């Protein structure tokens, strides 16, 4: 099974970025742990700080069984990313390290949630793992 894991803006800063909110693991460490925990999954990892690059990657995701997307702050602002998710047939699971519903009002709204298969929020790096488990069990 091939899964595409997309991380949006500022997630390349994990480890250094607000560790009290996002934890101390770097994105590379989170990715390595996913590969270690799910050796049967063929992962492709992509990170970009640019909305258009995320859209390009999403709409080229035809060969993946699923997409795991942490759109970062674009979650709350990007109708364009929501449109891209709606435009593709590949199921997308929204993930967040922090519990966005326990944070500032602007973060409690997700423009992408209505077009995603489901959302996982608040479990730190385990949010990604739970999303992989969903796709693993769907297969
Ligand atoms: C985040 C939550 C967003 O509100 C924030 O802008 C991020 C990270 C998370 O993983 O908790 O960049 O998506």
Explain this structure:
The chain has 139 residues and is α/β, with parallel strands linked by helices. It has one domain (2-138): Rossmann fold (3-Layer(aba) Sandwich). Helix content is 32%, strand content 19%. Helix 4 links the parallel strand 3 (66-70) and strand 4 (92-96). The longest helix is centred in the last third of the chain and has 13 residues, at 126-138. The N and C termini lie close together (8 Å). Bound molecules: 1,3,4-trihydroxy-5-OXO-cyclohexanecarboxylic acid. 1,3,4-trihydroxy-5-OXO-cyclohexanecarboxylic acid (DQA) binds next to loops. 1,3,4-trihydroxy-5-OXO-cyclohexanecarboxylic acid binds next to loops.
* The first-level CATH class name: Alpha Beta
Mean pLDDT across all amino acids: 97
Q: Spell out the helices and strands N to C.
A: EHHEHEHEEH
Described by strand count, sense and barrel closure, the largest sheet is: 5 strands, parallel
Report how far apart the termini are.
8 Å
Name the shape in a single word.
Answer: globular
Portion of residues within helices? 25-40%
Count of helix runs: 5
Radius of gyration: 14 Å
Classify the beta-strand content into a percent band. Answer: 15-25%
Write down the domain tally: 1
Quickly describe the structure:
With about 140 residues, the chain is of the alpha/beta class. The chain has 5 helices and 5 strands, in the order βααβαβαββα.
């Amino acid at each position: 099974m091939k899964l595409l894991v997309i991380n949006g803006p500022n997630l390349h800063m994990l480890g250094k970025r607000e560790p009290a909110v996002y934890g101390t693991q770097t994105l590379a460490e989170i990715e390595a742990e996913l590969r270690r925990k799910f050796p049967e999954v063929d992962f492709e990892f992509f990170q970009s700080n640019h909305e258009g690059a995320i859209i390009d990657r999403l709409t080229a995701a035809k060969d993946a069984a699923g997409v795991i997307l942490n759109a970062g702050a674009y979650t709350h602002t990007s109708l364009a990313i929501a449109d891209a998710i709606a435009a593709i047939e590949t199921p997308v699971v929204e993930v967040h390290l922090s519990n966005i519903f326990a944070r500032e009002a602007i973060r409690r709204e997700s423009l992408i949630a209505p077009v995603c298969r489901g959302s996982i929020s608040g479990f730190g790096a385990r949010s990604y793992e739970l999303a992989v488990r969903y796709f693993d069990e769907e297969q």
